[in-house]
User: Which sequence fits this backbone?
């Protein structure tokens, strides 16, 4: 856990209307029970109610569009945050306006999950660039631990982000 990363994530999630994540990547965020969530899964046909989570819906992207799923959740406009995993990040690759990519110098997670299916054959930066996203300069988040952030924008979006 990197405190600067967690703070950046939490602050960003506070400004979103809905969060999409894979069924195995539920984040331990303090306000998660108050956030609107779409939990991507193939175990259902389209979307399902969850009796114990009024603000969270299991959602199959192959069965119903993001827009329709968000409407069912009570969201018609606003910012969508994508928390992953690998397939979820890839699913939204053509749609991202902004993508935040963290790096920790010298860290390799053997057996870890890649951010995109094309990794490790290609670096994540190459995958983002091939999807017509452009990076900003790297911003140091935690100098002592070698943590940097680069934010990638779709053309014409940077000024609005």
Assistant:
């Amino acid at each position: 856990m990197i405190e600067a990363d967690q703070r950046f994530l939490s602050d960003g999630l506070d400004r979103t209307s809905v969060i999409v994540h894979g069924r195995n990547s539920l984040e331990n965020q303090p306000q998660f029970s108050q956030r609107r969530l779409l939990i991507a899964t193939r175990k259902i046909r389209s979307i399902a109610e969850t009796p114990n989570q009024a603000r969270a819906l299991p959602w199959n992207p192959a069965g119903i569009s993001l827009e329709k799923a968000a409407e069912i959740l009570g969201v018609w406009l606003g910012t969508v945050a994508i928390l992953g995993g690998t397939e979820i990040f890839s699913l939204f690759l053509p749609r991202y306006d902004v993508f935040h990519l963290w790096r920790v110098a010298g860290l390799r997670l053997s057996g870890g999950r890649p951010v995109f299916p094309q990794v490790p054959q290609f670096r994540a930066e190459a995958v983002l660039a091939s999807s017509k996203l452009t990076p900003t300069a790297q911003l140091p988040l935690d100098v002592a631990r070698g943590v940097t952030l680069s934010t990638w924008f779709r053309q014409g979006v940077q000024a609005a982000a």
User: Anything to note?
Assistant: The two ends are 26 Å apart (CA to CA).
